[in-house]
Specification:
single chain, about 375 residues, alpha/beta, Rossmann fold, Dihydrodipicolinate Reductase, domain 2, 2 domains, eight-stranded mixed beta sheet, six-stranded parallel beta sheet, 14 strands, about 25% strand
Length: about 375
């Protein structure tokens, strides 16, 4: 079977993880093009891939993804541009019959997410959303325990993202923290853990209520958000997300509590099992807690490599990737509901048929 031909569109902060994932999956995948509106970024990503591969490779460099698609034979696009551009670029590429891996969040509106999902179906291509932390080993162990009903009745879960993003971070890329292209801390920094929380707690949402504000950072969107999620199974999810922790990142944790079990996962990228207790005593808690790998080099974790591996397998076997468009939409929808709750001051009932970050323009002025 021939290798799948990949292109990276958007060669900024996260794209090095896409390079790592392609190198790790080099038996089945090869990078053939890089694209960024800043030519130097695309060229640097090409050289990064060649250096890590350890051999020369023929990689084309572009500043226009449409031009690239017209000239190159590409199977899969790894899309890592500013969040607000994801739908337009992804749909264009899918209409050209290209499979897509999209960085989180997949979109900034319910309507655009639905269009992306429909485009994948209409064009018979695979759409994968990069919620790579689902592939962390402790997260996989927790998911298995949920599926085996080891918790009994689920009571509550908490996702805490206590990080620091100073003004230098936002000034480095002025699109960050804007309603048009990014959203705030909940949408950018917290979406991975929110995705994990809803995945563990039963998925289907009843209502979402939130309080958010912009305390310290000179940005449009929030730098702190708190969300209460009521799931249809009765369980309650609690999200605490901030970019204001002094002086640096403190923790990212996921805790799940049920009548017969408690699991707490922490580490730099929710990659370390800290508590594992179940009434059934099926396994050795000490052994599970000892079975920890090394910490990743960043909060991005180790999950991109297995996510790319899953996508490659999904294409080869013509199945849905584990984190398809429908799955990618779930965490994003919770955050959009939180924004709507902030706007109205009321809980938001699901299903929420439409909402966009652009409806939040000017809302920060209400709380100054």
């Amino acid at each position: 079977m021939k290798k799948l031909r990949f292109a990276i569109v958007g060669c900024g902060r996260i794209s090095y993880k896409h390079v790592e994932a392609l190198i790790a999956n080099k038996k089945e995948a090869v990078l053939v093009a890089t694209c960024d509106v800043i030519a130097e970024h695309a060229e640097a990503k090409k050289q990064e891939y060649i250096t890590k591969l350890g051999e020369d490779a023929s990689i084309a460099v572009y500043t226009d993804y449409k031009d690239m698609l017209d000239k190159e034979d590409i199977d899969v696009i790894a899309l890592a541009t500013e969040s607000g551009y994801h739908p337009e670029i992804a749909i264009y590429c899918m209409n050209k019959k290209k499979h897509i891996i999209v960085e989180k969040p997949m979109a900034l509106s319910i309507e655009d997410a639905d269009k992306m999902i429909q485009s994948a179906k209409d064009n018979n291509v695979k759409l994968c959303i990069s919620h790579q932390n689902r592939f962390n080993k402790p997260i996989q162990q927790l998911r298995s325990a949920v599926e085996e009903n080891r918790f009994g009745r689920l009571i509550n879960g908490t996702a805490r993202i206590l990080w620091n993003r100073n003004m230098g971070y936002y000034e480095q890329a002025p699109w960050r923290g804007t309603w048009k292209l990014d959203g705030g801390t909940l949408m950018n920094q917290c979406i991975h853990n929110i995705d994990l929380l809803q995945w563990m707690m039963g998925g289907e949402i009843d209502t979402v209520y939130a309080q958010c504000d912009t305390f310290l950072r000179d940005i449009e969107a929030e730098d702190f958000g708190a969300i209460i999620i009521r799931f249809k199974n009765g369980a309650i999810g609690i999200v605490e997300g901030t970019a204001c922790v002094y002086p640096k990142n403190l923790e990212e944790t996921l805790n799940i509590f049920g009548e017969k079990g408690t699991v707490c996962i922490g580490g730099l990228a929710v990659n370390k099992m800290e508590t594992w207790k179940f009434a059934d005593d099926k396994d050795d808690e000490d052994e599970i807690l000892k079975a920890q790998g090394e910490d990743p080099d960043s909060v991005y974790g180790f999950g991109h490599t297995p996510l790319f591996e899953d996508m490659i397998d999904a294409i080869q076997k013509d199945r849905e990737p584990l984190i398809n468009g429908e799955e990618g939409k779930k965490g994003m929808s919770i955050i959009l509901a939180a924004y709507k709750s902030r706007l109205t001051g009321m809980p938001v009932k699901f299903p929420m048929e439409s909402f966009s970050t652009m409806e939040m323009v000017g809302v920060e002025k209400l709380h100054k």
